[in-house]
Alcohol dehydrogenase (Tepidicaulis marinus), 341 residues
Amino acid sequence: MKALELHTSQSLENLRLSERPRPKPDPNDVIVEMKAATLNYRDIIYLTGMMGYGADFPLPLTPLSDGAGIVVETGAAVTRVKKGDRVAPLFYQDWRSGPITREASASTLVGPRYQGIAQEYVKLSEEGVAPVPPHLSYMEAAALPCAGLTAWNAVVTRGKVKPGDWVLVQGTGGVSLFALQFAKAAGARVILTSSSDEKLEKGRALGADHTINYKAEPNWAGAALEVTGGRGVDIVVEIGGGETFQQSLFAIRPGGFIGFVGFVSGASAEVLLALINAQSARIEGISIGNREEFEAMTRAIAATGLRPLIDSTYALEDYRAALSALQAQNHMGKIGVEIAA
């Protein structure tokens, strides 16, 4: 079978498409034929060794962690799923429910213990997969395990969004657009930020109530305060990190919530700490989520008919072009990779 592998050291130049034997299931395992994957910023981080991340991952390393496929074989003791089920591998293979533990945090796909899903067939524990909504294509379902669940927890589980709330979403990538869709499904109002007027126009078509071009309006926190009549937003989905976090503190209402998701503009920041107290800010790092939360999200998606936005798709053989498109950050929504027909 075909598998994408990182060899020798962390560099995109060391990625190659290889052949390896198809895995066989142990009694509690399933074999999933991977149909599709989608890319995340994390893929660039560990593939290139940014900030030293991924240096302890074993080589050769199979990348990618957002995907979906079909169960084609089960071990003798498997009871949770059956052959023919459409499933997604869970990002945290050993995090079932409740607060995250140190052991669960080490159970990521593409990590020290588990390989990724950029391969035609993947062997996983039956506990490490979950069904996907029937109305979604494999490519759409492949956006759920990381991007979808991160947004769900930032807005719904941790953010506790309510009808009428104001939610500020930074950017137009996969997590951001999921956050927009989940917020609108909950009856909230959404402010979307981007440096692209074209993307903001598309965001309005997806339901954004107000948009801010942060290049044209560098003080976007002030603009958000104006939009909310000086009150501030209830929730910020923090994607930028270094260059945006302090403005997020200004943008929230007193007692508002910041779901810290990413740091695409920098992994460190100078922050006026007094603002955290002055705003009574609730700040929480969103580390994707557990299986119970994934299942709650997929029930909501099935009930509402929500569909992720797929910007573009590439064949597995065109992995370099797909990763280059991710690095360019010109996409809107998710970039997909077709693995098996």
Observations:
- The longest strand covers residues 29-38.
- The mean pLDDT is 95.
- The first helix runs from residue 41 to 48.
- DSSP finds eleven helices and 15 strands in the chain.
